[in-house]
Amino acid sequence: MPMDESVRKAVLAAVPSLRAFAISLCGNVDRADDLVQETLLRALANIESFQPGTNMSAWLFTILRNHFRSEYRKRRREVEDGEGRYAETLKSQPEQPGRVEFREFREALAQLPPDQREALILVGASGFSYEEAAHICGCAVGTIKSRVNRARTRLAELLSINSADEFGPDDQTRAVLAGGERP
Amino acid sequence: MNERSKPPAQQAQMVESAATRTKKPNHKPAKLTREVQARLGQQLRAMYDQVVNQGVPERFAELINRIDAKEDKDRQP
After folding, report:
1. Is the pLDDT of residue A166 over 60?
2. What is the C-alpha to C-alpha distance for residues A40 and A120, in angstroms, rounded to an integer?
3. Displacement of CA A112 from its chain's centroid (Å)
4. Does the predicted interface ipTM exceed a cut of 0.95?
5. Which of A12, A19, A125 sits opposite B44 (nearest CB)?
6. Can you give the residue range of the structural domain that contains A109?
7. Which chain B residues are within 8 Å of A159, Cβ to Cβ?
8. pTM of the model
9. How close, in Å, is residue B32 to chain A by CA atoms?
10. Residue A62 maps to which CATH number?
């Protein structure tokens, strides 16, 4: 069956957000793009199981998320060290233009437990409702809500945001961070 | 916004209160203010949108079109 034009458009339209989600899950652009590629191949091979009229984005996110989870578990078994690998991936990546400004934020995000990180991103950045996010993650709506809340609280702690006026890396923080990186 | 228009004395006070706030003994898992939540959300979306704004990389556009073409060919008798 040829792919319906509207389906093709919907898949294309979902790609940018799918990539952003993949990058935030695995913290590495190259791996994220491989993940997106594998997701698209799986999705297109099973396109007939997509129900027209439902949310294409949510469908693709679910496939990507499940694929990432099973890969992640496999790798975890292989590599032994599951903790801190995401953060290590971030550190070992060459600095890319535009990444620097979110560095502190990304590093804080990297310290969140994966469940909390994905919930926060789905709801806070991808723009899914709690219900959609729950569907994507295969858990209860209440679970997503509590993960998002815990993620926000932890992020605020990690970034030392106690009030809005303290937010953001000020000059002092930058100086300290820059100083700490020199050998 | 109007931060800059505040008199220096008031700014100093704000810095001071920020410093003492962190030492508050009743440090329970505080409910984040709406303002803090909004700031976190802004930062999160800005980071995310940086990738979204890169659009659809060529390799994915090609992949989707290639499968399309292949299916069209398969359809022919």
Report:
1. no
2. 23
3. 11
4. no
5. A125
6. 94-183
7. 40
8. 0.71
9. 7
10. 1.10.1740.10
